[in-house]
Amino acid sequence: MPTISQKENDVxxxxxxxVYQVERYIRPCIESVFRQGLKDKDFELxxxxxxxxxxxxxxxxxxxxxxxxxxxINQTNxxxxxxxxxxxxxxxxxxxxxxxxxxxxxxxxxxFLLEKALSxxxxxxxxxxxxxxxxxxxxxxxxxIVQKDGTSIEKTGEELFLxxxxxxxxxxxxxLFRRDFLLRHHLTFFPGIxxxxxxxxxxxxxxARKCLRVSWLLNIYRQHRPFAASSSHDVKKGKEISIAxxxxxxxxxxxxxxxxxxxxxxxxxxxxxxxxWMTTKLKTMPERYEVVDILREAAPSLSFxxxxxxxxxxxxxxxxxxxxxxxxxxxxxxxKNE
Length: 338
Hints:
Elements: E1 11-19, H1 26-33, E2 43-49, H2 61-66, E3 70-74, H3 80-90, E4 93-97, E5 104-105, H4 110-120, E6 124-133, E7 152-156, H5 157-164, E8 175-178, H6 179-184, H7 197-207, E9 210-223, H8 229-232, H9 235-249, H10 258-279, H11 285-298, H12 308-319, H13 321-334
Parallel strand pairs: 1-2, 1-4, 2-3, 6-9
Antiparallel strand pairs: 4-8, 5-9, 6-8, 7-9
Helix pairs in contact: 5-7, 7-9, 9-10, 9-11, 12-13
């Protein structure tokens, strides 16, 4: 690993892992952090106990006791966004990685990426991941994982945004963030919502200057089997997604180039359509209307104009939002067979 100029008490890497109700998953996650071939002096692990009520912390007590580079932050339950924000505030690393507590890191994947980051001083370094079904995790041959070629392409944030950002995969855990970049641009997670990765990732890409896109596996993404939409979605979740859409929409106020603004609006439209579809799965019409009304209140200027369909949805959103919901339900029944 290259030698870097560090301030006193700084380390090359801070790994921040929030913990809440993950007693089944947290130990494999933490164990994977210590299978990276990194010495304890090369990184710090910040575990944010977000007021978990299960045995998550007890599952990793022995690991915490064995390593001097682990810091535990205990807080009342405030959600993933606040937990990550508090971890960033405490972090001392030049780079920050934020894995999800139910996922794992590919063994020995970090040294290569960290060296790339430290030598390039890139604002963000984006890697690849494996998506594995939760039920297959216990039988998956992790020891036989073959790494990719490690090709590294330097891009501007704008290029990365246009070429690589999938609006449905705004996963922060696949990225090394330079701490100075986050602090300089006051980049934080909006508290109290799901899909907080969406506005955060879009803003990071749009404000980053030097970036690396590396063909290298970093994460093992545990794909949980989803519950039926009708039973797992509710007004609260719809509201949270609506706020995430509204926070992402605020980025249109930046002085963006036309191609960036078009891509941003199309990404937001993808989230808009997803929220609309999920809203149609709510049990009652008043609940459905409530969610779309919340979105209109949070993002009153929301507007899409890339094609007739977007223009029509925008018109209905502003002038007949309840009609928009009913048309989407009819569309689902007739066209999608839902």
